[in-house]
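call fold target=Transposase IS30-like HTH domain-containing protein
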Amino acid sequence: MPGKRVRRHFSQLSEFERGLIIKMKTAGWSTRRVAGQLDRSECAVRNCWEQRTREGTHALKTGSGATKKTTRRDERRIVRQALVDPTVTRSTYKQT
């Protein structure tokens, strides 16, 4: 269909990959070379580097999404229960 946009799914860079990009670019590597080495798009590498030069950081920004409803302690308890009995449903977790 002409005129219809193609939706592409991009994976975000991990903190490790962001660090590698910064180190490689600081060492003088080209954007194309860094992208090829990390198997990422040149656009992703360029955006990471521009954010670094603009803001002085390569860390991800905190989003404005919903706040967490569970504490770290609750999450550990849920994982522990799931390992003990993987057939338990979500509603059973809520009851305990």
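return ok
The CA atoms of residues 8 and 41 lie 13 Å apart. Helices lie at 15-26, 31-38, 42-55, 72-84, 90-95.
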